[in-house]
């Protein structure tokens, strides 16, 4: 399966794959299951055609976020075993170090497939799959799709608001106050546009019937099954290795 074939895979299969891996990893807070999943995910992403440079660049950003999460757990995590450093509310012990490592690997193992499996996913394709394959309520699916399409307009609205405020001579000083006022105006614009869109969709009959028709058919075939099976295999392997190693610690 190459990157071109991955683009043709139904987004629902990508969503299910990422969800299966994430569900397996949140059942236990240990570093063994997270490391196992991470080791298996990287070859899978490369086999799917994800290029090495985007993997390193975006993976670097995810690593920074994971590092910040690990730092919080390191300084304020569970106090267990030998205490290495203590200052006010900060306590670094064996338990907090182990928790920090586990959380660092866990964030990486959950975020990497979630990010790279959704490269080049079109909102319309995802909405078609959610409505036709997962049978989610069409009213919710179509409404969410319309909202996602309007997100891109927020940037243009922000720019136009800035132009209008400069034309009135109120954007030359007090940047913080200007940003707060402009943000409130943008919120008002978004609410008004959302209300108009909801009224227009009601007038056109969106959501009037529980069983609506779809302009594009969304299918779930062999490539989708292979991708979901790979996600199930990664999840099962991570749990099995952790249990065998004796590190499994069910969160319940």
Task: Write a structural description.
By secondary structure, the protein is mainly alpha-helical. The chain folds into two domains: 3-121 and 220-245, no CATH class; 134-203, no CATH class. It has helices spanning 3-8, 11-25, 31-47, 52-76, 94-116, 123-132, 138-167, 175-203, 222-245, and strands at 83-87, 90-93. The protein has a two-stranded antiparallel sheet with strand order 1-2. Helix 3 (31-47) packs parallel to helix 5, helix 3 (31-47) runs antiparallel to helix 9 (222-245) and helix 6 (123-132) runs antiparallel to helix 7. The chain starts with a helix and ends in a 7-residue tail after the last helix. The relative contact order is 0.18. One of its GO terms (cellular component) is plasma membrane. InterPro entries: ABC/ECF_trnsptr_transmembrane, ECF_transporter_component.
